[in-house]
C-alpha cells in the first residue's frame, strides 16, 4: 500500500510517501523556522500563506524522490487537526484536491495520534502502550489500547513543555525555537544546581503544569542574574525539572495502569536528557521506552502517512467534506 501523508499543522510544510508500514520512500519537510525566528515565534497568518506557496512544490519534490506519480498512490492521508486552523486548512484542501482528482480515498488524521504512531516507522511494538507527546503546543499522555483506539489520561493545565523551553529562550534572548538551544546550553551544567519547583508532581492525577516552572525560572534569573559562569547550571536545572516532571507522571501512569511500554513523541522527545531520564528510570521498573529518531519526533508527513496506513487497514476512510480543527477531541478520528 502506498500512502501519501501531508502535514501543514504548524510551521512546517511536509509531505511523505510511505510504502506499507515502514518503507519511507520520501519525507520532505520545508521548515519556516528562519521566517518566524524574526518574530520570536510562529505567526499564524504568515505560516498559512507560506504553506500556500510551498505545498505544491513540496508535493512535487516528495513524489520525485519517491519516483512515483499520483496514480501510484493508494490513499491520501492528511492532518485534520489540531493545529493552527489556517495552516491545517491549506493541507486539507490540497489533500481533498488530490483525492478528488485521483479518485483515491482520503483519511483525516489527528496530528497528536500521528506523533504517537510515528514509532511504527522505526520499530514494531505491541499494544497497549502509553504515549507521551511533548511539543510546542501539547504535553499529553495518551493510552493506546489498539490501533485507532486511544484516550487521553493526562495533559497540561497551562503551557506545553516545549512552549516553556521556547519562552525561556526568548526571555534570555537565545532565539527561536528554544528547545535545542537550551539543551545545548545545559550540556556542561549540573542539573541539581538550582532546585526549581516540580508543579503538580504530588497530585493524584497525570496532569502537568509548566507555566509555574517557567515563572520560577524567570524569577530566579531576575533575582540572581545569569552570566557565563552560571548559565549552563541554571539551564541544566530547568531542563532537569522539566524532564523529572514528565518522567515521574508518565511512569506513575504506566505503573498505576499496569502498562509495560511507553512511547515518546513530539519535538521535545528529541531532547537527549529527556530520553536518558526515561530510559534510566523505566528500566528499573521493567518498563520499555520507545523513541523514534529525532527527525521523526518533529512534525513530518511520514507520521501522518503511517497513521493513514493503520486506518486504511481498518477500512476507516473519511468523506471529502471533513473539516479542519484547531482543537480535537482526545479520541481516534
Ligand atoms: O513537534 P514539534 O516539531 O512541533 C509542534 O507540533 O509543536 O515541536 C516543536 C517544539 C518546540 O517547542 C521546540 O522548542 C521543542 O519542540 N524542541 C525541543 C528540542 N527540540 C525541539 N525541546 C527540548 N529539547 C530539544 N532538543
Ligand atoms: Zn507536532
Short description:
This protein has 11 helices and 10 strands. It has helices spanning 33-37, 44-66, 85-102, 111-117, 161-171, 178-186, 211-224, 231-257, 272-285, 294-297, 301-313; strands at 2-7, 12-19, 23-31, 75-81, 106-110, 129-134, 139-146, 149-155, 261-265, 288-290.
Task: Outline the fold blueprint.
Blueprint: E1 2-7, E2 12-19, E3 23-31, H1 33-37, H2 44-66, E4 75-81, H3 85-102, E5 106-110, H4 111-117, E6 129-134, E7 139-146, E8 149-155, H5 161-171, H6 178-186, H7 211-224, H8 231-257, E9 261-265, H9 272-285, E10 288-290, H10 294-297, H11 301-313
Parallel strand pairs: 1-4, 4-5, 6-9, 9-10
Antiparallel strand pairs: 1-2, 2-3, 6-7, 7-8
Helix pairs in contact: 2-3, 4-11, 5-6, 5-7, 6-8, 7-8, 8-9
The structure holds 5'-O-[(R)-(carboxyoxy)(hydroxy)phosphoryl]adenosine and zinc ion.
The ordered H/E elements are EEEHHEHEHEEEHHHHEHEHH
Number of helices: 11
Uncertain runs are none
Structural class by helix and strand composition: alpha/beta
The CATH topology of the largest domain is what?
Nucleotidyltransferase, domain 5
Spatial strand order of the main sheet = 3-2-1-4-5
Q: Work out the number of β strands.
A: 10
Characterize the main sheet. 5 strands, mixed
- Architecture of the largest domain, according to CATH? 2-Layer Sandwich
Specify the CATH homologous superfamily of the largest domain. ATPase, nucleotide binding domain
Termini separation (Å)?
Answer: 21 Å
Q: Tell me the overall shape.
A: globular
Q: Give me the Rg, rounded.
A: 20 Å
Please tell me the overall pLDDT.
95
Bound molecules: 5'-O-[(R)-(carboxyoxy)(hydroxy)phosphoryl]adenosine, zinc ion
CATH class of the largest domain: Alpha Beta
Number of separate domains = 2
Portion of residues within helices: 40-55%
* Assembly state (oligomeric): single chain
- Beta content: 15-25%
